[in-house]
Amino acid sequence: MQTAQSIDESDLVSALKAGEQRAFHQAVRNYSPGMLAVARYYLDRSSAEDVVQETWVNVVEAIQKFEGRSGLKTWLHRIVANRCKNRLRTANREVSSEFGEELEPGIADRFQSGGRWATPPKLRFEEHAESLMENEALSDCLDKHLSALPEQQRSAVMLYEAHQHKAEDVCNILDISASNLRVLIHRARQKIYLMVEDFQETGEC
Amino acid sequence: MLMCRDLARIGSDYIDGQLGATDAISVKMHLLMCRDCRSFIGNLRESVRLIRGHSDYRMDEEYARQLDNAVDEALESRGRG
Q1: Which of A117, B49, B60, B75 is 20 to 30 A from A110 in CA distance terms?
Q2: Domains of chain B, each with CATH number or no CATH
Q3: Full pLDDT tens readout for chain B, 81 residues
Q4: Are A77 and A39 in contact (CB under 8 A)?
Q5: What residues does each domain of chain A span?
Q6: Cβ–Cβ of B48/A161 closer than 8 Å?
Q7: Which value does ipTM take for this structure?
Q8: Taking 90 as the threshold, does the pLDDT of residue A55 lie above it?
Q9: A43 touches B: beta carbon within 8 Å
Q10: Are residues B66 and A196, on separate chains, in Cβ contact within 8 Å?
Q11: What is the dotted CATH code of the domain comprising A4-90?
Q12: Contact by Cβ (8 Å): A128, B49
């Protein structure tokens, strides 16, 4: 059974293949944030923006070859990743990968030597999730902390959480192992956990 | 025996259903006995919900227009070709 989203996407792809300007402008707005998330994993901001622009110019022709074996988003993200990797190869550079420990220092420091909590979770914010989500100050704070995540964690989180890619797809796009992806995502989640805990305790960001 | 620190280390794997059956049972047993870890996992789940609702790259309007213009030019040359 086709979902509403897949019907929308197939209409969009047809319009893109037909060269409809409005469809391209819509696609640019829908898909560029995710494409930037991919590119920023590999490159600095200015180079990442260049690659996303080059990709769209290329897509104007290349869309004719899109056969729908993957979703349009995954297809676009793969093109961006390949272009970024080519750039790095040409410049003889690599992404410096620092995956590190599974635990954030702010969490790791909260255990006794035996492994039990010394400073247990202070708040039980699972009971207040809905009101948390409606809290404007928290929402601003969340934006600020997500923007401040290390670029690799941020890209991994955006592709996995916001864009809902399968872990396997994120690993392919970012060229990392499944275990390294798990570390990036878990570290980012802990940072946000600590931010919410602190915000609830102090009322400040 | 699984300790609280071990559980914190694999918390995301647990909530994403990425643990093997044996590890998942160990976590469940631990959670039955440990209120602090139940809070940790509950809070981590809510952090994920918050992230899902917020995380995306903000694209400034000027850059979006720049992309539109680049696409328009490419469409024009595709039309000519």
Answers
A1: B49
A2: 4-80 (1.10.10)
A3: 899 999 999 999 999 999 999 999 999 999 999 999 999 999 999 899 888 887 667 788 999 999 999 999 999 988 776
A4: no
A5: 4-90, 105-202
A6: yes
A7: 0.86
A8: yes
A9: no
A10: no
A11: 1.10.1740.10
A12: no
